[in-house]
Amino acid sequence: MSITKDTPTLAVQSSKHVKAVGPGTVPPLADVMLEPLVRSTLLEDLGRAGDLTSNLIIPADARASLRVAAREAGVLAGMDLARIAFKVMDSSIAFHARMQDGARLQPGDTLATVEGPARAILSAERTALNFLGHLSGVATATARIADAIRPYGTRVTCTRKTLPGLRMVQKYAVRVGGGSNHRYGLDDAILIKDNHVAVAGGVGAAVQRAREGAGHMVAIELEVDTLEQLREALEAGVNIVLLDNMTPDMLREAVQLVDGRAVTEASGRVTPQTATAIAQTGVDYIAVGAITHSVAVLDIGLDISMEGGNV
Fold first, then answer.
1. C-alpha span between 241 and 254 (Å, rounded)
2. Looking at the DSSP assignment, which residues form a beta bridge with residue 64?
3. Which domain range does residue 220 map to?
4. Residues 208-262: tens digit of each pLDDT
5. What's 250's domain CATH number?
6. Which of 13, 80, 131, 173 is placed for a possible disulfide with 138 were both Cys, Cβ 3.0 to 4.6 Å?
7. Are 248 and 240 in contact (CB under 8 A)?
């Protein structure tokens, strides 16, 4: 059985000379944070009558073991969610991780083995695989860009373009893939965009009101799409400038104009093919929404065998 394809808020500092991320280097999310998400997902799947197929076909005392395996190359993420899915379904299920989040996978790699009551294992397997496949897809997409731009000291960051209910774990998967997290929500940083500026009556007024109302720990970022707007942003003293939909030549000029006075972040339909040229301009960060909202799942599957025979 298999799925088929179909860090804290952005730091106000340069990302230069960042280190590559590997297995175990990203702190895991606590089980108490993950369990409610896993439980709600299992409940959605079990519905009002439970797993009719497994409960009617599989004997109550049947036991099984399975191997969770990679079907294609990528970066692993979501192991704790998979483990919790099996444990929540039946606490007697034994989940033995063979690889950690952040591991670079090759086809055929064994990620984990699972042993226990067959009914419970089969009832939890889709939830476990959905989390593993999707979050490994996020980590893999992030890693493709992170690897391409690392020589230039630029870092890829995600956005708030996440799937409803999955922001916490998607942003975790971005970190696992070697990326950085932008703000988690509307409440942990200030990002002044073109509509805010238009309603506020200008860049200066918008930044002044933000600074007067925000605490000293809250960063202020301003989106600009022209060099003139960038000059206004720098004069207003923002912490971060979001350079939106600029060409590489314009980005290079913008970085020179900033000259270290603010963190620079490029955005606007970034792809793995265009990311290198953007990084070569010297920007600190590249924001990419697609690494959370448009990724393909990584193909991860199950090889199941019954004790004493094959299913």
1. 10
2. 116, 306
3. 149-293
4. 999 999 988 999 999 999 999 999 999 999 999 999 999 999 999 999 999 999 9
5. 3.20.20.70
6. 173
7. no
